[in-house]
Write the structure tokens for this entry.
Amino acid sequence: MKSKCKNPNGLHNLKAIIGGQTMDTLKFNSLDKAKRHLKSEGYRFNKAFNCREDKAMFYQGRYGWVKLTSTFDYLNKTSMEQGTVWNIVKL
């Protein structure tokens, strides 16, 4: 018997399936807002890997690691404007 899809497209597409586990993804419109959020959660900067427009930064906290990446996506759910969106994924 086939199992139901755990990650349907649409508004519930905010979870990424990584290694069989679901991880929450936070999205921000600016890098400053994302950094402020990470600092308020107690994470500190560790490494950065940048290549042209692709940027990835790793932060370490007492609860584990998170990755801050930039993607070209819709700025919010209701408009058709596209731009750089910063995603925070727990590893």
Q: What stands out?
A: The mean pLDDT is 80. The two ends are 31 Å apart (CA to CA).
